[in-house]
Amino acid sequence: MSLNETPRSSRLHIGIFGRRNAGKSSLLNSFTGRRVAIVSDTAGTTTDPVYKSMEIHGLGPCVLIDTAGFDDEGPMGKLRVEGTEEALRKTDVALVVIAANEIAALGDDELPDALAQEREWLSRLAEKHTPTLVVLNKVDEVSSSAAPQGGDAADTLAARVAGALALKDNAVNPAAPVAVSAATGYGMDELMRALLRLVPEHWNARSLTGGLASDGDLVLLVMPQDIQAPQGRLILPQVQTIRDLLDKKCLIMSVTTDRLDQALAALSRPPVLIVTDSQVFGEVYAKKPASSRLTSFSVLMAGYKGDIASFVEGAKALNTLGPDSRVLIAEACAHAPLPEDIGRVKIPRLLRARFGESLRIEWVRGTDFPVDLSGFDLVIHCGACMFNRTYVLDRQARAAAQKVPMTNYGVTLAWLAGILDNIDLPLPPE
């Protein structure tokens, strides 16, 4: 990613789903205008999901996800389908692709059974309230004899598919499939228009700092430049916070923790908001002016990427932990642990100092998130700057469904510092 690119985690994720050889990879290539995914007549060519970041006029920065067929078989096929299901958890808008040439000759009584898997995945997407569009691909391979005399074969087949899938026209899942040919470009303009209509009007309009700062406010950022800070640059949450505050026309001052006293003394008025690294929550809280709000970069990310109220509610489980409790720490980054790593060293050390050395702590990184969380007393998630909001909300929903509380790094550190009730949360402006 170049310095001027929108991070993948902040882009609209468009998932492309369907059976093997439905033409998903061809559709991705048609969108991008070049050969991004390998196309072959051999079923199962796509193995791991292919993520392609691009700009789409009218949509802005997007990520197109080309997935393996959800009908894949065998031991490796099972793993590929699991990858497709993981992509589903990240998807903001879904395209379910059907190969027109494989169903055109079927009778109306045969279509429902033939499209049973598509109907199942459409149901799963509907349960997640994911806006979804059915795409009838390869219509260039359908004979004109598939339509009544004087009719259009593509439109006729699209209507039959809509009936077989029992599609209902609503704001999330339009009833009419879009007929296209990724090979010839037929219908791609209509597909783009339908996709634009499907994206929620105010998608990604959230502010990272919520209602904590507004035009003209003075904001102080406390940013320790320790071993975890990449040399010569800032970490992503810091960069995104600065950009959000600049967009709001705030006045911004940045300082390292050891210069906090000097920074406050140099200001002619107290900052409206102080945003700190969560690791120094206690130190900054002790020195902040009484009128200044206080939050952290991780807490801001918790509200931007997930449900902040749920994270705070999950922190109540910290009151019930004991020496025999079991805690899962989930990291979005797959980085190698560093000395004094926040998730691997500092939080575990603080937890064990509070609850006992026998406290059981386990870690997962990247997309390795357990399906079964029932054995854990608490899940503590990082700020998730590398994940999109849909994916984080999915993890919160999975934990809630299993009645396992989940909180985040910043909220946990505020609780451990004894100031959780005194920090400010990035709630949307009223």
Textual characterization of the structure:
The chain has 430 residues and is of the alpha/beta class. Helices cover 34% and strands 17% of the residues. About 4% of the residues have low confidence.
Mean pLDDT: 88
What structural category do the secondary elements indicate? Answer: alpha/beta
User: Which percent band covers the strand fraction?
Assistant: 15-25%
The low-confidence parts are 36-46, 147-151
Could you give the distance between the termini?
Answer: 35 Å
Kindly provide the radius of gyration, computed on alpha-carbon positions and rounded to a whole number of angstroms: 25 Å
What gross morphology would you assign? elongated
Helicity level, as a percent range? Answer: 25-40%
**How are the strands ordered across the major sheet?**
2-3-1-4-5-6
Total strands: the figure is 14
Q: Total helix count?
A: 15
Main beta-sheet annotation = 6 strands, mixed
The string of secondary-structure elements, in order, is EHEEHEHHHEHEHEHEHEHEHHEHEEHEH
Summarize the SSE layout with pairings.
Elements: E1 12-18, H1 24-32, E2 50-56, E3 60-66, H2 74-90, E4 93-99, H3 100-103, H4 111-114, H5 116-127, E5 132-137, H6 153-164, E6 178-179, H7 188-198, E7 218-222, H8 236-247, E8 251-255, H9 260-266, E9 273-276, H10 281-287, E10 293-296, H11 297-305, H12 308-314, E11 326-331, H13 342-355, E12 360-365, E13 378-381, H14 389-401, E14 406-408, H15 409-416
Compose a concise summary of this entry.
The protein contains 15 helices and 14 strands. The chain is of the alpha/beta class and 430 residues long.
